[in-house]
Structures are given as structure tokens and as C-alpha cells.
Amino acid sequence: MILYDFVCTDGHDFEALIASMSDDAPSCPVCQAPSRRRLARLNIGGRADTGVSRDQMPRSWTQTGAGDRETIRHWHEVAAKREKLEERHPELAGDRRPILAHEGIFARKPLRAGDDIAAAVRDASSPTQSDTHKDKQQQ
Ligand SMILES: [Zn+2]
Fold this sequence. Notes:
Blueprint: E1 2-8, E2 13-18, E3 35-37, H1 69-88, E4 99-101, E5 111-112, H2 117-125, H3 130-138
Antiparallel strand pairs: 1-2, 1-3, 4-5
Zinc ion (ZN) binds near residues 8, 10, 12, 31 and 33.
């Protein structure tokens, strides 16, 4: 079964599982109008293009080109698409805890609400030894 996006003649967007690409498009679950398949963005069991993850999105003013309108619009659209994707596939959402710090020593791994701050600082300031620290703590 493959998950496809469909759009009906009335413009309702919906998803449906069909056995193969050659199957007829299902009728719209809202208005029963005929539908057509949209360009596949994601399917089950195949290679899924999940787009840009949240960690790849800009978090600071300079990363948005100092507030460049086109850049901000672009990222806004990317974020909106990501939002929709995560609604349907919550497992892609990843760590959604608020980021408390993401600059300086936290540039590599942001500090998030709920993190052990002392441990995070130690990890961030000695990245080469962080794994050793973790192993010791777990024993
Ligand atoms: Zn419809």
C-alpha cells in the first residue's frame, strides 16, 4: 500500500492508501467528488523526502539574512510545510522542547528546557570527552 495525496475537483485535500499507482483515485471523503493524485511528496515504504528539519532552520537574525523579506518568506513556507508533515507524522517532529540557548558553547547542540544544565555545559565545553562522561554517569 502506498500513501498518496489527492485533491478532489472541489479542492479538498486528502490522503489515501492505494495498492498501486495504476489504481483509480478514490472519491473525496468529504464531498464524494472524483479526485486526482497530487505529486507524491511522501510514501510509506519508499524513500521519504521529509524536507528540512527544524534543526536546519534559521534561529537567529543573521541566519535570516538580517531580516531579508524573501529569505524570511522562504523559511516561513518551509516551516509551514514542516508543521503539516509533523502533524501527520509526529515521529518526525523530534525534540520540540523550547531551546534556551543555541549560541556560543551551545552552537553545536542547543540547550533545551529540561536539560541538566551542568551536564549540558560540561558536554558542550568538552565535546571530545562528552561520550566518556556519559558512560561514567550511566554506570
Ligand atoms: Zn471534495
